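User: Run a structure prediction on this.
Assistant: Running it now.
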Amino acid sequence: MKRLLFLLSCSGALLYGAELAGVHSVYFLPMSRGLDQYLANRLTNEHMFQVVTDPKMADAVFTDHIGEAFQAQMEALYPPPPPLEKPAKAEAADKEGKDKKDQKKEDPKAVGLLTDTVNKLSNPSLSSGFGRAKGTIFLVDSKSHQVVWSVFDPPKGSTENDLDRTASDIVSRIKKDLNPQNPKTKN
């Protein structure tokens, strides 16, 4: 039984590393105190990930919060694909079945749907930073929306040096998790 648990934990560690290793380009959502800027600087200087300004080009997204507000942001950045279109034969049959009067009645409704705007973040609590777990950083896969990597490393203070030191610590942790080989075990 102990062997089975050991094997499962090792395979989980390998899967974890494989997901993180698959990340090449990252996008940053705004973080508290501007930590995203310090992290982007450190990651760029260390040549660990390519930092992109277009979220559609990113393999993963760095954020300091997850939940409903984050999910709404991800849906805005990565909208779901449109539904598949009907085959051409089915569309032709639908067009033949409708007369021109019915089509005129439907056109204003279709235009009305396109002009109505909906604020996805109409609930102020969704965009609020209140209640965030300060110091937790998440790396989320842009396609599956699964957390690939996370760390808890709160800044020691709010000065630029403190934020830069925290960003450096986070980047060191990512390096360690990308290369799990411990150099102390070499003989």
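The first helix runs from residue 2 to 21.
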